[in-house]
Automatic annotation (TrEMBL):
<keyword id="KW-0732">Signal</keyword>
<feature type="signal peptide">
    <location>
        <begin position="1"/>
        <end position="23"/>
    </location>
</feature>
<dbReference type="InterPro" id="IPR006059">
    <property type="entry name" value="SBP"/>
</dbReference>
<dbReference type="Pfam" id="PF13416">
    <property type="entry name" value="SBP_bac_8"/>
</dbReference>
<keyword id="KW-0813">Transport</keyword>
<comment type="similarity">
    <text>Belongs to the bacterial solute-binding protein 1 family.</text>
</comment>
<protein>
    <submittedName>
        <fullName>Extracellular solute-binding protein</fullName>
    </submittedName>
</protein>
Length: 421
């Protein structure tokens, strides 16, 4: 009798679990991180924890290679086959929201009030996406190089000026110890250009588009400040201070560690390998070219597709993922910047006194998001081509004027992209 009762209880419990599982509504999720096992491990743990935490929703992840991810989302949107949850690169989000691929998030925004600005994806006054990390770029070098070249170590409070930065590059070249003074990462293309290089333009006082109206690039991409930037940029290549656009990708990956370059303009994702090579690695703030030092902000973020019939469930998953333990887990796994001070204290590298804590400070002090406009996806490509052409010797004024014409024509073709003046 006792055995029969126990067996009956077990069957009842099994039936209950099966009923709960059957009651869960499936939420599909697309992710850009295929091929990154560390990233996948953290994401899969978040998904498993969320699915086990409640009985309403069951998230199922499909991962894509980053190189083909955006095209896959656009094709799915046109075909009406978007999943419930997608991740989106921060600067691309306004275009996807404007194009109708996304809907606003239904999360408690008090949960992100302490986030760094970069991971918050707002468009037209509403929150469409939120990131679990940010990324930052710094000028990487070694203290021994600074000492050998008799250079002042810049700080957040006193970054190098344009004159000091130019003098540092000249000193590195004149030392004869390096193939090039600076590695800009010219082997990388695409989003690297606007993310890494438009902050130089912005520090000079220009920009990709007028952010007051987002209706024109006239005067900001070809004005006096932008011209000064363009001439300086071209001079880096003309004076053999940096590798050209045909840089060997392998030289970008390990050239600094191999002693080819005195300085490297690189991100926190590459920091660990460099620190493991040189004990005296230092990460310097961006120089101030006249209008304050700038670096890029915003990385990949989570959003809910407009096709989702369950935006409440999709938003519930995203809100669940915002817990500090998950923010810290992503940082520990892939080296990116946790978006809150509390999660930073839970990490190996970004806690107070940690070897990469400087990147959190850089993001907090210098980061600037790329233009928050649907037109950014075109502006980024135009900017990339213009900078590559100028690096290869094209006339600066003609190239920047042509870039402005192309951007303005795109804005007009798209009726201003929904911005109201």
């Amino acid at each position: 009798m006792k055995m029969r009762t126990t067996l009956g209880a077990a069957l009842l419990a099994t039936t209950g679990w099966a009923t709960m599982a059957a009651a869960q509504t499936e939420l599909s999720m697309w992710y850009h991180g295929a091929g990154n096992p560390q990233e996948a491990e953290v994401l899969n743990q978040i998904v498993a924890d969320f699915n086990a935490s409640q009985s309403d929703w069951n998230v199922v992840v499909e991962s894509f290679p980053q190189e083909s991810y955006n095209d896959s989302v656009v094709a799915a949107a046109l075909a009406g086959n978007l999943p419930d949850i997608i991740d989106v690169d921060g600067p691309v989000m306004p275009n996807w929201a404007w194009s109708g691929y996304l809907q606003p998030l239904q999360i408690d925004e008090s949960k992100i009030e302490n986030f760094l600005p970069g991971p918050k994806g707002y468009w037209d006054g509403e929150l469409y996406s939120i990131g679990l990390w940010d990324a930052a770029v710094a000028l990487v070098t070694r203290q021994s190089i600074l000492d050998d070249l008799s250079l002042r170590t810049p700080t957040l409070e006193e970054p190098w000026t344009l004159e000091e930065f130019n003098a540092a590059l000249d000193a590195a070249k004149e030392s004869g110890n390096f193939e090039y003074a600076l590695d800009l990462g010219m082997a990388w293309t695409g989003e690297w250009y606007p993310y890494a290089f438009s902050p130089f333009l912005q520090s000079f006082g220009g920009d990709l588009v007028d952010r007051d109206t987002y209706q024109t690039a006239e005067g900001v991409l070809n004005g006096e400040e932008a011209m000064a930037f363009g001439e300086w940029w071209q001079g880096l290549f003309a004076n053999d201070l940096v590798p050209g656009t045909s840089q060997d990708p392998a030289a970008r990956e390990t050239g600094f560690q191999d002693g080819k370059y005195a300085f490297s303009w690189n991100g926190n994702w590459a920091a660990m390998n460099i620190m493991n090579t040189f004990e005296d690695t230092v990460f310097l703030p961006a120089p101030d070219f006249g209008n304050g030092p700038k670096i890029g902000a915003a990385s990949w973020q989570f959003g809910v597709s407009s096709a989702s019939e369950h935006p409440d469930g999709a938003s519930a998953f995203i809100e669940f993922a915002l817990q500090d333990e998950y923010l810290a887990a992503f940082s520990n796994a892939i080296g990116l910047i946790p978006p809150t001070t509390s999660s930073a204290q839970m990490t190996e590298n970004y806690q107070d006194g940690g070897p990469m804590a400087v990147f959190y400070d850089l993001t907090e002090a210098q980061a600037m998001v790329r233009p928050v406009t649907p037109g950014y996806v075109v502006q980024a490509k135009v900017f990339e081509k213009a900078l590559a052409d100028i690096a290869n010797g094209a006339d600066v004024a003609d190239t920047l004027d042509a870039a402005v014409d192309e951007i303005n024509a795109d804005i007009e073709r798209n009726a201003g992209y929904g911005h109201t003046e």
